[in-house]
Amino acid sequence: MNKSKIINFEDHLDQEYGKKGLPSREKYEQEFEAFKLGVMLQELRKQRGMTQQELADKCGTTKNYISRIENDASDIRLSTLMRIIQEGLGAHLKLTVDV
Fold it and tell me: Dihedral through CA 16, CA 20, CA 24, CA 27, nearest 10?
């Protein structure tokens, strides 16, 4: 019988992207945070029953830009993010920095 070795997620990340602090791991971590941001914005928009076009109109941007953020939020400006969250979604942004 072939037993597969079960590893925890942190060990999996170490194997796939290298240890924390390595450029490949940092790139993965940044892209994952961008992905989470896009999903969070999409969920907030849907909870409020808004289309991408409605959100774009409300915060002064385009549907295409909202779609890009929801699908790949890696290049969003902080001022734009704040406007989308505050004006478009009626929410507040809180940031934390882990050192």
Answer: 110
31, containing H or E segment: helix 23-47
Task: Read off the tokens for 19.
Answer: 């240890």
Instruction: Give start and end residues of each alpha helix (H) in 48-77.
Output: 52-59, 63-71
Q: How many CA atoms lie within 13 A of 18 on its CB side?
A: 10
* Helix 23-47 × helix 9-17 angle, to 10°: 120
pLDDT (tens digit, 9 = 90+) per residue, 31-57? 898 899 999 999 999 999 999 999 999
Helix axes 63-71 and 52-59, enclosed angle (nearest 10): 110
Domains, the chain, in order of start with CATH, read 34-88 (1.10.260.40)
pTM flag (> 0.85): no
φ, ψ at 24 (rounded to 5°)? -65, -35
> Hey, how many other C-beta atoms are within 10 angstroms of the C-beta on 55?
24
